[in-house]
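Weekly modeling sync, notes
Attendees: S.R. (lead), two postdocs, one rotation student

Agenda item 3: backlog of single-chain predictions. S.R. asked that every request posted to the team notebook include the full sequence so nobody has to chase files. The rotation student volunteered to paste the first one in as an example of the format we agreed on. Action items at the bottom.

Example entry:
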Amino acid sequence: MRLADPQATEAFGASLATLVRPGDVITLQGTLGAGKTSIARGLLAALGLAGEAPSPSFAIVQPYAPPEVRLPVLHVDLYRIDDPHEIEELGLDEAERESLLLIEWPERAGPDYWPHALALTLTIEPDGGRGLTARVPAGWERRWPT
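Predicted structure, as returned to the notebook:
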């Protein structure tokens, strides 16, 4: 899929809002500036968040809960995680049952950490647009494509 500009990237994120439910995991992979946070911001805005969602780069986990958003969301940025064992300390496994997890930099956890996630990968194209590819797990097949 091709996303022409930052607005299209956020709009794609917003389109995911009608599809997500507690227990879902969406991973966002790509280089710095590829649009991971833009997708997350679009999704969070469509779930009801007023204002712009901050990047969770320094907090690592940015939680959102009703009534701020339609369903509980944990926006996670693993960029500063050096050892996959550190992820266990974040409590994501417990939170996953009742929240949507948006995970930036999922590769820091290892290739098999979230096998059931909708795995989105963004690339920066030569014309400045974004390329988006998805690995769609069984739990998402009836909901995909957007």
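Discussion: group reviewed the output briefly. The mean pLDDT is 90.
Action items: rotation student to repeat for the remaining queue; S.R. to check formatting next week.
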